[in-house]
Structure formats: C-alpha cells, structure tokens
Sequence to fold (509 residues):
Amino acid sequence: MKRFISTIMLLVLLAVVSGGCSRDNDFILPDNGTTQPDNGNEEGGDNEDDGKDDEENEQPPLNNVYPDTSWAAGELDWVFDMNVLPEIHIEVTQDEWNNLLQEYDRDSNTAAYIHCDVNYKSKGEEYDFEDAGLRLRGNTSRRRPEGNGGEMHQTNNTDWHHCHFMINLRKYQKDDAHELHNVRKLHLKWHKDDRAYCREIYCYDLFRRFGIWTAPYSSYCRLWIHVEGDSEPAYYGVYEQIEAIDDKYVKKRKDLFGDHKHNLWKCTWGADLNYNNIRNADIYFDDDSNANHTYELKTNTENFNTAKEQLIEFSKNVTQRQGQDFHDWIASVCDVRLLLRTYAVNVVVGMWDDYWNNTNNYYIYFNSSDKNNYKFFFIPYDYDNTLGTSHNCGVQSDSGRQDPLNWGDTDRAPLIGKILSYDDYRKIYVEALNELINPANDLFYYEHSISRINGWHSMIRNYVENDTGEDCEIKDRPAGWGNIYEYRILDAGSSMNFFKVKASSIPSK
Fold:
C-alpha cells in the first residue's frame, strides 16, 4: 500500500459566509469581519487576549503545528488526517441489517456485531474489506438506526436515524488485509447535540497540538449505508471517525507507555478512584457482553484478579497518602507533567463530564501488572459536551467561568485536586493553562480556534445535509439541553464567546 505521512496541518482558510442554511435568523457562521486577526486588540471589545504580560510567558511559543508524531506516521496520520474528508461505504444484507434492528429491540445496549462489507476512499486510494463487523455504539446516546422499534427494514421507504457505529475490519477475518494502514477499528460518531459539527473534533485536535500523545486520534469522514434491496444507499452525512482505545491503541504507543501488555481500564460514571468507594464499586472485565461496568478491564483480562488488586491499591494510595509521601509517590508512578497538561486541555475546553467533576469518561493504563511497581497513564475520552455545552453537574453551573483550580469535588474524586495542592505541581498546571491561551501559540486562543474551525467547516459544509433529515445545518449553538444557551464559539465579537470567557477564568502564573 502506498503510505502518506501527514505531520502538519495545512493553514486553514477563513470561511466567507453570508447566509448559510439559516431558516430562522439564527447565527450560523460569522461574516468576515468577526474573524480577522486584530494583533491582540479586539475592536470595541474587552482586549482580553490572555490577560498576561509578554514577559511573563516563560514557555516559548509552539511554532510547530503538531509535536513529533513520527511514531504514528503512515498509519494514524494517514487515516485521521484533518485536511481530507474520506468516504466510508458500508454494504449489508437485509437479513444482517434486520438482525441489528432485532438485537437493538431486544437490548438497546447491545454490543452484537453483524456482517458487512466496507469500502474506504481517501487521498486517491480505495480499499475494500469483505466480511467486516458492524455494531452500534453509545451509552445514553445509543439509538435505533431505522424506525422506532419492532418493524424490520422498510425497503426504499426507510426512516433512517443518526446513530453511533463501530466498524471492526478484523472481526471475522483475522488477517492483515483487513486493516486500513494498520488500523482495524473505527468509531463512527454522529455529531449528537453539536450543531456546530466541531466540538469533539476540536478537542482531540487540541490534545495533539499540545503534545498529549495519550489522546486518541480523530477526524471527519462521510458515511453511506446500503442495505441490500434498496435502490440507493442511505447517505448518513458527515461523521467523526475516532481511533478505538484498545490493545491496538496501546501497542501503537508501546515505546511511549514503556510496555503494551498490561492493564487498560475503561472508566465510566462513578469511577472516582476513591478508596472509600472503589472496594464496593462495579469492577469487572470486558467479556463481550452488553453489560456496562464502572471500571472495565479491556486488556490482559485473563489476569483480571491481579489487575483489580492493582487498581484498588492505586486508589488506596491516591486516597490515603498525604504530605510529602503523596507528592513523591505520585511522581514515582506517574508522569505528572503529562497528566497535568492533559488536564489543562480538559479544563480549557470546558469538559465538565469528566473525572474530577463527574467521575466519568476516561481510560487509564498501567504499564505493569505489578501491584506496586508500574507507571499510570490517564487517557482522555468523549469530548462532545464541551466548548460551551455547559450543565449543572457536580460543583459546576458554568463550564466557561468555573475556576480551573476548583474544577471538581476533590473529596469525592481526589486525584487531580490533591496533586494541585502542591506548589510545584500547581505551577506546571497553571503554566500549561496559560500556554494554551497564549496568542503566540496556535492552540486555544480565540482567533486561532475560530480560524481553524472555519477551515474545517469550509471542507464539510456542503456535505452535512443527509438522508436522515437530522442535523442538516451547521449552527453556532451549544446543546439545547445545556444550561447556558448563549455561548458561542465562532462569533468573536460576542461577549459570550466561549474561548474568550474561558481564557478570562485562567489564573495568572
């Protein structure tokens, strides 16, 4: 196969839009005048760039777009390229599709796969994968892809619905021909609750720009599903394709993790890493069932009991160690700088549905199975409820203005808040926050962020209308169920521009 290396992102163009798809005078995309650089002085605005003097910026600007990702070249960088829009065509028999519908009706949390064929097109290359696996994904967001329940496929009269999918190219055929540039699984995620079609994409891209190599890769794609017997395939529109966090994810980063054969945990709501709670928590391993567990071991499952003991011992140390003992211990089992820089990104994007505030949505990896001798890694995950999609949850009522040093309840979820109680560790975190909002860096600063998102919109805008009839417009709005509907991300002149509001909450170094 011909390999491509994508190590830097093209300079994105500012979109010139004057109308869009508006039906109701809603703000769709800003006009030219709202996104032009102003050299740090917004005309008529609050001059909020980052609120810090230039001489205080001890970290040099990041002149490169992405830090070194040579370990991913030709593989992840080829598949998850933010400058292209791949096409994914899924072919499935009517019997298999009906099996998927029946499995959903039997159990909406079904993890059952069906057989399908997949055609993948990108950068002038085309790949066909016969007999791949397809299943539904999502927790509270899992949906039936057709109809409302009970009925089977309605040929050429189909009520299609957006939903999340997983493609496993090697589910049934265990050979290298069933991998796409060494990628075997793709999470296909619709832009649920994100009318701006960019929130999670933006967050994972920001992690990469900031050198957080633990974050999964993601990018845009277009999706078609053709059920046998239909005259035309159903166009599902613009989706997000995301790298699966599994044993393959760990193996690709084995030199960075130090080892790839040990304990990867998926952590969902209630996973507070608090020893007072974890002893009675739902801890189990991935047994290919439909069950969801608070802590679920995804790799090395044959050694589950040992892995469980290690997890509980880790939480005991997190909870019970104090003073210099905790300070030194956490440094011995963790790259504290990487962890705090990861969490700085987590906080600036307004991720309230996370570990610290809501004990949810993350993975962890231990690079050894030894109970006391290991390195611990925090892996960020699930970033659609960000960039102004705020919610009354945990200690928070406003993700834009929430104090980054008090992001959650440390008594409940002790890890991050406890680390930040030490001056030297807190300094790492605060410097990372300031580095992210620094106008000299192509990171979180509002002008750079708006320009980047406009560039992506110029690539996808003509393709969002789809056969489900859902989410057919790009709009600068947070989720309707959020508690602050006034947040905007593309209107630089708005007093509720999320990037500017969040930057104003960042403490000085």
User: Anything to note?
Assistant: The chain has a mean pLDDT of 88. The chain has 14 helices and twelve strands. The longest strand covers residues 125-137.
